[in-house]
Amino acid sequence: MEVNDISFENLPRAVAHLVSEIAEIKFLVERKEPPIISQKRIPLDITEACQIIGKAKPTVYTLVRKRLIPCYKNGKKLYFFEDELLDWISQGKKKTLKEIEAEAKLDFGKNFKKISTNFNKN
User: Residue limits of the Helix-turn-helix domain (predicted)?
Assistant: First the structure.
């Protein structure tokens, strides 16, 4: 339908045409996946890094010197990235008692089968 064809007599047909166009646009918009926006990695200074990991500056400097914490150095200044610090923290997870017990039962079952198999051979 052309824009010039709209008159009072053609109004119902024009509205029907607009409704179908809107439905088609809505379908296309809903079908499209949301755009993936890449987040910029903004470097943090040592003060911000200390706040994120909850350690004092001397402790962080010691971790850097021992190469235990991910960091970057440009000139005399240290830089950190939040995602790397959070990954570093998550790598230090301690096992719960239930996890330790489950591992022990699993290992005991494997070792018990080996021992019983060897005992039956002799």
Answer: 44-92
